[in-house]
Automatic annotation (TrEMBL):
It is found in: Cell membrane. This is Amino acid permease. It is a multi-pass membrane protein. Pfam families: AA_permease (PF00324). The chain crosses the membrane at residues 46-68, 100-119, 125-147, 154-177, 197-219, 240-260, 331-354, 360-378, 398-417, 423-442.
Length: 449
């Protein structure tokens, strides 16, 4: 293989990676996971998403600073290894890969659920297979084609969320025709603002962390981003403002318009329920289509992220070299095909578990996002000592306080989640982490990279 065929091409701009981060985070967690989060916490889910957004801000600021200091980095491992050592970097790489391959499998099933809104006679596995083939094809094209596709998919769903917010506020505040302004009584009725107490709020944090997961994909785009030292901080700032906005305002509208105890157990997304209330003919179909595009967009980002982790592992000799092969379009074709296997595993699981496949996988994914954020935060905490002699174009202003807040909050959430999550989900996740650790002990420690 020629050396220059081994190098990824820097073709992504700030607008591409900003939208990719949004594409990764505004997906099934928002449109489908919202039902589960509201069912757990009631109206207090707003506090859960606010806390999650603040933690995300502090973690992403640290990631941006480390990326600027190490402009040669290609992925998380390059940022973390020089600071924390080989094992944390190895563990982070593989749990991140595991997160995305499981996530795209789960979201292929969610996409199928939304397609069933129009095609109720088709089984979920056939619909999931169709979506999986489409996402695979998009990723096998050039990086520029992928980035443009992701940009427009993310832009469409953002525009519709804005319409959703405007329409929701009108329904809440304005009376017209046969409609009477709903107001905000649903926030305190039906058991109060905290209907399930503090434990409900803690349980919802797992869904919250899972929902926000994907934003850190910015750390995977480093090898294909023009001027990452300038682009990454800008993308972090703009992405965080939009994510918090696109989560908090929609959730505020949903729990205000619809009694929280009527959201779960309904086949369609709460977003589709609200659009039905608008009364515009076909509004629910439009929203369902947008939700479907959002899921495909998130799958698109997930397949990108997981394939690039596998590619860099292959370049460094940690997995077979075939996964480092690039096509003429500079796409790691075999790495992509390997990661797409997860999509088809999801299809097979859906043959037996059906629509419950997503709920089963979401808990494990929440744990993984939480550990990814913890490792990034810990690495940032120690990065100043390792690289204090270097000047940086981007510096976290309130360091180390913001980073410590993130670490303490994530640790507290982890403890709470352990006590509120199914022991089966916790056990399966622990088994996966032990397996990753054993592979490091067996093989990873013998590599110098």
């Amino acid at each position: 293989m020629e050396k220059d065929n081994q190098t990824l091409k820097r073709t992504m701009s700030s607008r591409h990676i900003t939208m990719m981060a949004l594409g990764g985070a505004i997906g099934a967690g928002l449109f489908k996971g919202s039902s589960a989060a509201i069912d757990m916490a009631g109206p207090s889910v707003l506090i859960a998403y606010l806390l999650g957004g603040i933690i995300l801000l502090f973690v992403m600021q640290g990631l941006a600073e480390m990326a600027v200091r190490n402009s040669e980095a290609r992925t998380f491992r390059d940022l973390v290894q020089s600071i924390l050592g080989k094992y944390p970097a190895y563990f982070l790489d593989w749990i991140y890969w595991k997160m995305w391959v499981l996530n795209i499998a789960a979201e292929s099933v969610v996409a199928a659920i939304f397609i069933q809104y129009w095609l109720p006679d088709y089984p979920i596995w056939i619909l999931a297979l169709s979506v999986s083939v489409l996402v695979t094809a998009i990723n096998l094209l050039s990086v520029k084609v992928f980035a443009e596709t992701e940009y427009w998919l993310a832009l469409v769903k953002i525009c519709v969320i804005v319409v959703f917010i405007i329409a929701g506020l009108i329904l809440l505040l304005v009376s017209f025709g046969q409609h009477t302004a709903v107001g905000f009584s649903n926030l305190t009725e039906h058991g109060g603002f905290f209907p399930n107490g503090s434990m409900g709020l803690i349980a919802a944090m797992l869904v919250v962390i899972y929902s926000y997961g994907g934003t850190e994909i910015i750390g995977i785009t480093l090898a294909e981003t023009k001027n990452p030292e300038k682009v990454v901080p800008k993308a972090v700032r703009s992405t965080l403002v939009r994510i918090v906005t696109f989560y908090l305002l929609p959730f505020f509208i949903i729990v205000s318009l619809i009694p929280w105890n009527e959201v779960n157990g309904v086949p369609e997304s709460p977003f589709v329920m609200v659009f039905k209330m608008i009364g515009i003919p076909g509004a629910d179909h439009i929203m369902n289509a947008v939700v479907l595009l959002a899921i495909i967009s998130s799958m698109n980002s997930g397949l990108y992220g997981s394939s690039r982790v596998l590619y860099t592992q292959a370049v460094d000799g940690r997995v077979p070299k075939i996964f480092a092969h690039l096509s003429k379009r500079k796409v790691p074709v075999y790495a992509i095909l390997m990661c797409t296997l997860a999509l088809y595993v999801g299809v097979i699981i859906s043959l037996y578990a059906g629509s419950k496949t997503f709920e089963f996988l979401m808990g494990s994914l929440g744990y993984t996002v939480l550990f990814i954020w913890l490792i990034i935060a810990i690495a940032h905490l120690k990065s100043r000592k390792k690289q204090s002699e270097k000047t940086s174009a981007y510096v976290v202003k309130w360091f180390p306080y913001t980073t410590w807040i993130a670490i303490i909050a994530l640790s507290a959430i982890l403890i709470g989640i352990i006590f509120t999550t199914s022991i089966i989900v916790t056990g399966i996740t622990l088994a996966i982490y032990i397996f990753i650790t054993l592979t490091y002990v067996y093989k990873g420690r013998y590599h110098t990279n």
